Amino acid sequence: MKHNSQHPPKFFLKFFRWFCHPKLQKYIEGDLMELYDERLRQKGKRKADLKFVIDVLLLFRPSIIKPAEGYHHLNEYGMLKNYFKISIRTIWKHKVFSFINIFGLAVAMSICMLIILMLADQHRYDQFHGKRDRIYRILTKIPKSLKPNASSPFPLASAMKSDYSIVEDATHLVPGVGGDAVYEQRSAEMRGFFADQSFFNVFSFELEKGNKDKALTSPNAMIISTEIAHILFKDEEPIGKTVEFTNRGLSHLVKDGESTPTYWGTYTITGVIDHQKQKSHIKFGVLISASTITSLHADEKIRDMSDNWSEYSNCYTYVLLHPENTPEDLTRALGEIVAHKYTNAAELKGLKLIGQPLPAITPGIFVGNPISFSLPIEVYYFLSFLAFAIMLSAGVNYTNLSTARALTRAKEIGVRKVTGAKRKDLIYQFLSESILIAFLAMILAMILLQFMKPAFRGLWVNQYLNFELPENISVYFYFVLFTLLVGLLAGIYPAFRLSKLQPILAIQKKESSFSKKLGMQKFLSVSQFIISLFFITTSILIYNQFKHHLSIDYGFNAKPIVNIKLQGNDYTKVSNELSKLPGVISISASDYLPATGTQNGTALKIVGSEKDYLSLTVLVTDEKFADNFALKIVAGKNLPAFNQAADRFILVNESAVNKFGYQHPSEIVGQLMEQYNTGETFEVIGVIKDFRFRMPSEQEAIAPLMIYDRPASLRYANVKIAAANRSQTLAKIEDTWKRIDPVHLLDCQFYDEQLAETNQGLVDIVSIIGCFAFLAILIACLGLLGMATYTTERRIKEIGIRKVMGAENRAIIWLLSKGFLKMLALSIIVGAPVSYFVNNFWLQYFPNRVDFGIGTVLFGIFILMFLGLITIGSQTWRASKGNPADTLRME
Amino acid sequence: MKKYQLGEFEEVVMLTVGILYNEAYGVSIKKDIETRLKRSVSVGALQTALRRLEDKGYLKSFEGEATEERAGRPKKYFQITALGKKAMEYTKSTRDELWNAIPKMALQVKIV
Known about the structure:
By secondary structure, chain A is α+β, with helices and mostly antiparallel strands. Chain A has a six-stranded mixed barrel. Chain A has a six-stranded mixed barrel with strand order 12-13-18-15-17-16. A four-stranded antiparallel β-sheet of chain A has the order 11-19-10-20. By secondary structure, chain B is α+β, with helices and mostly antiparallel strands. Chain B is 57% helix and 13% strand. Chain B is elongated.
């Protein structure tokens, strides 16, 4: 060859060979080569190459490209096309069955898709950290508690950084920053942490404004979120501005919980961070540079914890390992620290420090004292289990109906087999049909999902969990994968079953044994109804439990009370102003609201007694509290108005009287008590009647309680207002509040609503379980409908003949329904005891439980029977009404 | 009603195949059109047209010899079929008819 070294571009030649129709390839390639050869001689290699490429690209057109169906493998593509066509026709022909199948699958799939979305939502957290594979959060596990704590001792981060070479860097977030920042009359409430400069080295948070290399280096530096920056500075540039910060001890997690306001000085804004763009399990409104801590505890505004290894609940530690180190190295290092620091500490014996990889935090295991709320992985397991049960039920419907229809399709199968279809081909055909149905269901499910998403986001818990549920390509990929799986699994049994049919039997239309007995189908149907019954009973039960919680008698009168958060204002002033208003009956104050989830503890013992300290819940109130809440003093007197001499008086409740070992309340009055730790002495001045100060869902409804007066600790004003003109009174209160405190907005709520709100979690569970119950019964009924329709259709001639012979409608309905009624009866016989015992089992863990009697189960059975009978009845009724002349003529 | 479908480029290709008689294959057709009509023709466009004409039955092809500059690939020669000839004649006659139907005045407009 002359031009051996002169080849046209290889890639394009290969490309041409790949796409070109095999019949044309050698001729056109010949032409191309000839032209290339000529151009090479006339114009040189570069031009020739270029022209060649252009020619090849211009050849890429439909008439030259080989057909997509393939040239050599024509048969397989053809068959697939055929399968698809047949599937569409079958779906179209049996509209009722297809609808039942597609709708049932879609409903179940939408639930599963919602869970996929939830998981995908959670997996978006902390994806932006460049070093995320090397970041570990240190958990503290003490033997007493089942779950580890997300927090760890304060000195841990610095110890890890200085003593262990495996750690590249370590940072910690110290909660306790929560208060108001004021800038030119504008105030913003903010909650957050102290953090050091390593924060930006370990994590890859980016600042919207400000330089992240210097943002946390100097003392009194502050990074705020964009929302807070907007409240404080509107459109001004926040960087470099100074704000006055007053700490109110707001917790980074809970909405309430505050302490005496302390002025913390002025802070310079060094950064603004946008949490929307960086989804992380670490959420904060404000970060204050850790170097500020030193000056703050020098002023005794916060405690010094720099060498406090025994407290592990007030700091979150994150370490960054060197790339070459493994988690085992970290475990070993943590083990050493524990051995070094905790061998002598008796009460912390057995404490363990555990490294948790950053990607395993959301969704992650259930941890105590979390840095932000998230749904623990266990909940996902539970929800997935429920969704799986529903999905299984819908899959079973498909399997059932397809298998039951074997007879209808027997001829088709027979003919296919006779004309040479192998069993494999038939299996493919049935599978492609089920997958097609699954995909149609997926489309419907995505539509349903659009309705479910807002409902889910509206759940009460979501204000803590912040699910957004965005859809994106990778989620769709999982949807498709999931759909394929559903199609395959639902279709595999009928595919094997139907393809086994003997052609001779099939064509002769002899009923093979399985299509008559339908044993498997009955079993599956019965299990569906058992599951439905269980769900129904459970949701009724939880609903009853919820109602029960709402109707609980707390022992005090919450109805006319409006609680106003003092937000750092002096109670005496607020009380004086508000009591002047008409419509306000009386005002008292407390440090937290009983029975809404908060409680403080202390321990007392009788002075001079040998007995152990008795732990009590402690509530701070003023002297009007008891009257205001209509609490009865059973012995002694009420608290006196506060003065220096009166601060040693306390009230206790009846339960405390019993626990201290007194028979009668009057015996304890005048007794001196000594407080644990502080050694302060109190005198019991009166005994108050027991009332509930714990939430209904908590164990031990009534426990020992002491009440005393410390005006500095009061956080809430409890305003009792007259029933008439409530809204007017509220408006007046708001006006007055604006005069008292122009900075903070009035934060007031009706007490009874607040009490009801504590049960919101239960409402969510009711809605979720109720939704599952609804779906379970819906799908089970759809399945039943399909079976009933099929059976009646098959026996339509028999019914016709019976009617001609003189059978009554009633007899025919009975004849047709008998089998189904047996199934329903069987599922009730099995399902009722199961749901009774299982529900009773978990109900034991509920304090304040509603009594779960046979009534609830009977109600569940009634619903199940009612829906089941309607389903069966609709079909059998129709069949019995049919004119025999029509049905018998049909041939 | 269209009896014979022949596009403008297809007609050019048909005519060129006729001109080249027994020497009409991809490259020679391309070159001939390019030299005679001063228009560039891509291999893709030409092959598509040839394929379509062959499908319509206006052209038939036979395999020719393989030469060295074609890297051992055979040539595919084209010939006009009887149907092709009819199609060409039909196209020509319809054109002529149309030409004749134009009133003389219409063509003189340019001169005025």
